[in-house]
Write a structure and sequence with these properties.
500 residues; single chain; 23 strands; 7-stranded mixed beta sheet; 6-stranded mixed beta sheet; globular
């Protein structure tokens, strides 16, 4: 009874439910993809109703696979794609339109307008974030202005806003029949509406973005009992942890001491450094964000470098160009050549995130000659992820004023041996993969487990972390410098392609 924890991991391309034992080992898992909707260039949407349906399906499937029931779960944690914005009717639970995904760039004109009135960093002191198409605030503002009667209905308390964590929590705990409308501090810190010092919605920001407070969820810690599942397979199980996906991976990697760093390789790449109870203002293009808050303990903060397109570039190679049949095939294709042949791909499909924050950048392929073939393209796809990570690491070392000794890695792409070796080579640092690579889901499970006493403290989490493999750099310094120098040239070619 109650020997396991469940983690609901709602990501950009799929929803998973994973059951963990006390040692952090995976007992059972189920995963289902959902549709990626592209109504026009730069727009990326999800159907929230489909995500809710997939959520219910994967919970049932994962428990059935292992012969477990709700009675076997001590608690469930939620982790989610951040910034993706949902508005729904309080009375019915029906979304007023598709969710606007974090990658979506439709609010680029508003970013330019707000920046013209006070600079791209006009809200950074309060929020830790530059003005960008990335965050939820301007997406929410767009929905209110472009859905009929939405502004008036929101003021009257008829509409609710949330990132995906809030939408799922509300539905899991009863929906229109008393569902809990709440979020945690990590997700709230990605809206550009939260004050990092007060850890609550900021009236000045709400006025600037024209967002009615009545539609916003309550901001709570990352580890506490928010409510219980009201019906379905998981009925009666406490929901006791919520963390945005990258913060969840930081917890899953047990980077709980200041200075510890992890990088998650998924649709995008997200490198976080724990800075402890002090928020550090970045001078080199990084974000300041909430790392986690366990119950009544003080919040911990992080510096974050966000890269929009990494794993998504492999999907593009598969789906748009048809050069590979499945994503895992990219490594074999890249190994058909000894190097990139001078080819570089800068995947600025939705602009460039850290450390540049250029919404007007667009993707480029540079260095093409008649010599280049599909193997070189595949290699350039993988190397783009490592180069972008190097740029973020360089910025993080400058901000934190300490060199990184090792990089802890997780996420789907860490199974790619060629990528991990090149990552070590271009960083000139050890790259370490843990035994459990699904650290995002594990972090949500840990947060839930701490809240209900399944774990007595973080020492038990530290004891669970084990190394699976370490990659060590083997590239000569002149070659490392030349590759990085040429990458920087390619990045410069991507700047200012789109005109707002």
């Amino acid at each position: 009874m109650n020997n396991y924890l469940g983690a609901l991991d709602q990501g950009t391309t799929s929803t998973r439910f994973i059951v963990f034992d006390k040692g952090g080992r995976i007992v059972s898992a189920a995963q289902k993809e959902h549709e990626q909707i592209f109504p026009q260039p730069g727009w990326v949407e999800h159907n929230p109703a489909e995500i809710w349906q997939r959520t219910q399906e994967v919970v049932s499937e994962a428990l059935a696979k292992s012969g477990l029931s709700a009675r076997d779960l001590a608690a469930i944690g939620i982790t989610n794609q951040r910034e993706t914005t949902v508005v729904w009717e309080k009375a019915t639970g029906k979304p007023v339109r598709n969710a606007i995904v974090w990658q979506d760039t439709r609010v680029a004109p508003e970013v330019a307008q707000f920046s013209a009135q006070g600079g791209q960093d006009r809200f950074r002191a309060k929020t830790g974030l530059p003005l960008s198409t990335y965050f939820s605030g301007l997406k929410l503002r767009w929905i209110l202005r472009n859905v009929k009667d939405a502004e008036e209905r929101a003021k009257n308390g008829e509409l609710l806003f949330g990132n995906i964590d809030t939408f799922l929590l509300w539905n899991l705990t009863g929906g229109s029949q008393g569902g809990v409308h709440a979020t945690d501090v990590t997700n709230a810190s990605r809206t550009q509406l939260l004050n990092l010092k007060t850890l609550d919605w900021d009236d000045e920001l709400l006025r600037a973005f024209e967002i009615p407070r009545a539609m916003l969820p309550q901001v709570r810690s990352s580890s506490e009992v928010y409510g219980t599942v009201s019906s379905g397979t998981g009925s009666g199980v406490p929901i006791a942890g919520i963390l945005g996906d990258q913060q969840a991976a930081l917890v899953g990697q047990v980077c709980l001491r200041p200075g510890e760093v992890k990088n998650t390789y998924g649709t995008g790449c997200f490198l976080l450094m724990n800075t402890g109870e002090q928020s550090v203002a970045s001078q080199f293009g990084l974000l300041t964000t909430v790392a986690y808050k366990f119950g009544a303990a003080p919040a911990c903060y992080a510096l974050e470098g966000s890269v929009a397109i990494t794993g998504a570039l492999v999907q593009w190679l598969r789906d748009n160009l048809g050069l590979i049949a499945k994503s895992a095939d990219v490594e074999a294709l890249a190994r058909t050549v000894p190097d990139n042949g001078g080819v570089y791909i800068v995947p600025a499909f939705s602009g460039l995130y850290a450390p540049y924050w250029k919404d007007s950048a667009r993707g480029v392929i540079a260095g093409l000659t008649r010599f280049a073939n599909k193997g070189h393209i595949a290699r350039a796809v993988l190397e783009a992820t490592a180069f972008q990570t190097r740029e973020v690491v360089d910025a993080m070392e400058k901000d934190a004023k300490i060199p990184l000794a090792t990089l802890r890695v997780d996420g789907g792409m860490v199974a790619n041996e060629l990528l991990m070796q090149f990552q070590s080579d271009i960083l000139d640092k050890d790259v370490v993969r843990p035994v459990v690579a699904e650290t995002t889901a594990l972090g949500a499970a840990y947060a839930a487990g701490l809240a209900v006493g399944f774990y007595k403290g973080v020492d038990e989490l530290l004891a669970n972390w084990r190394v699976d493999k370490t990659w060590k750099p083997s590239l000569a310094e002149p070659q490392r410098q030349k590759l990085y120098r040429d990458w920087k040239k390619a990045v410069a070619r991507s700047f200012d392609w789109a005109e707002n």
